[in-house]
Amino acid sequence: MKKIKISRIFFLFLIFPIFLFGESIKNYDVFITIQKDGILNISENINYNFDGRQKHGIYRKIPLKFGSEVEVFNVLKNSKKENFDIFDEAEYKIIKIGKQDVLLENGIYNYQIDYKMKKAITEYGNQYEIYFNGIGQEWGVPIEKANIVIKMENGKLYENGENSNFEVYTGKKGERNQNFEARMENGEIFISNLTRLNENEGISFIIHLDKNKFDKNILNQINNEAQRSFEKERNDFKNLALRGISLVIGFIILMVLSVYVWVYYLKAKNTKYFDEELSPVEVAYLSGNDNLEKLTEVAILSLLKKKCISIKEKTMKMIFISEKDELPEEEKIILEAIRNNYQKEDKFYEKSLEMKKMLEKKYRNLKKDSKKYYFPFFLGVIILSILFFTTTFENLSIYIGFFIFFAVSYFISLDKLSYFRIIPIFFIGILLFNDISKNILYILEIIYFWGLFEVFNYIFKNNSSIKKWIDELKKYIEDKIFKNSWEMDRFERRRIYDIILPYSVALHQNRRVSQCFIKEFGEEEYKNQNVNFFSNNLIINEVQKTFDAVRVKWGKIASKNKRFGSGRSFGGSSGGGFGGGGGGSW
Hints:
Blueprint: H1 2-15, E1 24-34, E2 40-50, E3 57-63, E4 69-77, E5 80-81, E6 84-89, E7 92-98, E8 107-118, E9 121-124, E10 127-135, E11 138-139, E12 143-152, E13 166-171, E14 180-185, E15 188-193, E16 202-210, H2 247-269, H3 280-286, H4 292-305, E17 309-312, E18 317-320, H5 329-339, H6 346-362, H7 375-389, H8 396-412, H9 417-434, H10 436-462, H11 465-482, H12 490-506, H13 510-521, H14 523-528, H15 538-554, E19 582-585
Parallel strand pairs: 1-12, 11-19
Antiparallel strand pairs: 1-2, 2-8, 3-7, 3-19, 4-5, 4-8, 6-7, 9-10, 10-16, 12-15, 13-16, 14-15, 17-18
Helix pairs in contact: 2-7, 3-4, 3-12, 4-5, 4-12, 4-15, 5-6, 7-8, 8-9, 9-10, 12-13
InterPro entries: DUF2207
Protein name: DUF2207 domain-containing protein
Keywords: Membrane, Transmembrane, Transmembrane helix
């Protein structure tokens, strides 16, 4: 048996020598010159190691994101002109280097590819932004050493005394690793990897430059379709230091806050907020998908299915068709903005804010994320714990244990209540094992807080018929759509899909629902009925772009001077910029 296994392994290595050796890129140098007219002049030097089955050459695939353009003007192999073909495939420019009737011997070959990239610059506040994948994330072979040099035509990227303003990311698409070193020298930026880049790993960078470094006619190179994602700034939360409060005051605070929240939530429980059903926008808001762009996207898609508006896919222009009396208030607000042609102006943003404020006012007591209502409870717990356990420092370790216990329970108890219930039992067991006479107060406190928490949790988790309505909607989509368990004719199933689609976007289930739609009704129906808008990001990208433009105009988004990936991020990641791509051998 061992002989057979060994022979099989040896045979596999003979058939697939790439397992033993494998192709790789030994050195990958990229020289990027930013011209004053906004065009990027790029020269790539690739030392490609062929180590396996003989190949004809390599191919290079460059993504054409957001309408960017690539013009190849020179290809060399080992410093000599080499045959190459260029063609477009999907959203890529493919450069196929080599001859069909020529096979290369194993070894290292140097390839030089010179090309220009147009429309790879976007506006970022009062600056221009270049977000570029210097080493593409689609190479199917490892890259031993990568070097990127970025410079400005007839000048320096940053003059003396001028703050450099760029970031670098490495890794696969979407990752934000820091496998690089960077330096500034004579107004040029030099970036290199620290360790080997594995398959499908690359290097991306974001540079912000003053507009005065470019010609005035650069406007024809600005890519207005590019979508920049900005990270939302997070609020800093201050830790509450409540030492020195007496035991009586601490107990009063706990009880007052507990009773307040209890009454507040019981009042909310008995309040009827909707008649029969929730709109898709309300479902999104109450499910926690409450950012402004998401709510606006759901409203637009709901209006689209109700045939109140139409959308031109190429230009993403929204056209008002009609208004219906039964529209929910939030959809009427967005429809008014579209009818008055506000979609590219500040007014559209204001209308979306008006919609969200209306939802906040309507559901301020019943929003699904009820963790904030636990805060008074845990605040009181911490106060009493400090007062109980730190009058003397004999039981400081017990206090620390309780503090960790309540902190952990705060974050996990809402979704994993069974785990929460194990923790107090564990602590009670420890206290009983040590000395029940000394620890009786601690045991009673655990039981008291545990019981109070169970009451709170029951109220918070079961107060709302809205939550039950959303849960039933999710179950309906799961049973009827995903499991295809309904028994009704094709016409009725089609009608149900029209109702479900906007809700599926609100619940982040749109891609699965769209796939079921294609399986049920076919690709042609999917395209003809605008269902494709529900499974891609066209609308939310357009909304994001419009809102970001307004925020920049209003000063809510502004660039900050940072360098070498430290501090605040520009919201980038590896593979998120223009260019890049990858390639391989053929």
